[in-house]
Amino acid sequence: MPRRLGELEDAVMTRVWQWNRPVTVREVLEDLQKDRSIAYTTVMTVMDNLHQKGWVRREVDGRAYRYTSVSTRAAYSAALMNEAWSTSDNPAAALVAFFGMMSAEQREALQDAMRVVRRDDDTEDSAPVADVPDVDAPDADVADADADADVPDTELPGEGAKPPGR
């Protein structure tokens, strides 16, 4: 499980993810300074820490480094959600509570995602994905959901599915 990024780490990674190209400390600094007063050395330290934790890779470009993300924000978010779900003593109840917090747009996105997973599953001729209840249906019964269904590990920086820095 990846450790949740700190506020400044998240601010830096947000830029690296959004720009989706190699970035320098100076570029990140200049963008961060639009919202806050921050020193070059602070941003440099945060980016070095992110490199040490395996969130970014870097290569020398003249006298500076260019940093590139090794994962996506989506993979990071998915790993956080998976960890929270899998550590529950009642995963089905945790999912029901989570679905209950979702907006209509989020539930629609979930249903779209499940269609993609099912389509990919059919293409690979593998075992079918456990049925996910229609979260918009008032009588959705999650008691029948397979709480022990395998949830694929999300590749993150570091060794395989292990979190960065461990």
How does this structure look, described?
The protein contains 6 helices and 2 strands. Strand 1 and strand 2 (64-69) form a beta hairpin. The longest helix is centred in the last third of the chain and has 21 residues, at 104-124. The chain has a two-stranded antiparallel ribbon. It is mainly alpha-helical and 166 residues long.
Strand order of the largest sheet: 1-2
Order of helices and strands: HHHEEHHH
Structural class, by secondary structure, is mainly alpha
Distance between the termini: 9 Å
Shape: elongated
Tell me the radius of gyration.
Answer: 19 Å
Question: Topology of this structure?
Answer:
Blueprint: H1 7-19, H2 25-32, H3 40-53, E1 56-61, E2 64-69, H4 73-86, H5 91-101, H6 104-124
Antiparallel strand pairs: 1-2
Helix pairs in contact: 2-3
Keyword list:
166 residues, mainly alpha, two-stranded antiparallel ribbon, 6 helices, elongated, disordered C terminus
Quick overview:
This protein is mainly alpha-helical and 166 residues long. The chain has helices at residues 7-19, 25-32, 40-53, 73-86, 91-101, 104-124; strands at residues 56-61, 64-69.
